[in-house]
Amino acid sequence: MEFYADVRRTKKNEERYGITYTTDGTTFRHTDSFSEIPAGPGDRLFMDTLPPQHTEGAIELLRKGVEVNYLRRLTLIEKARKELRLPKSARGDIKALMSFEERWFRRVTEDFLVMRRMTLAYRSLLKTHQQLLNKYRALSEAERVMLKPAISSIERQMLEMARMIAVEAGKRYPAYNRLVEALGVSDPSALEALAEVLLPE
Fold first, then answer.
1. Domain definitions of the chain by residue range
2. Which residues, in sequence order, are bridge partners of residue 29?
3. pLDDT digit string (tens) for 86-117?
4. How far apart, in whole angstroms, are the C-alpha atoms of residue 89 and residue 93?
5. Each residue of 49-67: b (16+ CB within 10 Å) or e?
């Protein structure tokens, strides 16, 4: 059986994502977690996007034997919605999703989802670090003293996250360890970057 799902932020809490799904494009149901979708071994799930917050639910489905896929480009939804004259709603987006060929979806694995979540966490730290550096450069010397501890703290977190990513990549991707050994790479930041390169887009 094939399931199609629209994942979007809830109106009450933008940090949470609600899920609307269907199997036939006629009957729609709502849930807060992918793990609550009644899919089993051999079933397939196609969705528009897979937020990091839903990683565990998606992994649970994968462990049940469900094939999990998400759309490669979200812009395709709007285009299909206009062509099919569908409303801008969860149901309209799902019907647009159902019109796509399989080649427009990316099939995911547990390894990919775990590594993606870790990499996104690192990128979040990196973004915060860059923002602090930009503010730091705009301040006077006396004012910079206040930001230095915060910048140092973020840098320590980035280093630790890079190490974690390197270790996890080594466990999940044998090619990663071989490449690290061949290149003689040891710097944690370089290891993280290498892990990211080895991951599918």
1. 2-108, 111-198
2. 21
3. 998 999 999 999 999 999 999 999 988 998 88
4. 6
5. ebeeebbebbbbbbeeebb
Q: Which residue is listed with tokens 């690192």? A: 122
d(CA 6, CA 57): 15
Question: Coil, helix or strand for 87?
Answer: coil
**Helix, strand, coil percent values for the chain (each to nearest 5):** 60, 15, 25
Q: Which two tokens stand for residue 148?
A: 């230095």
Instruction: Give helix then strand counts, H and E, for the chain.
Output: 7, 6
Q: What angle do CA 78, 13, 64 make, to 5 degrees?
A: 75
pLDDT in tens, 136-188: 888 888 888 888 899 999 989 988 888 888 788 878 877 766 666 665 655 55
Distance CA 19, CA 90 (A): 9
Closest CA to 175 of 123, 126, 115: 115
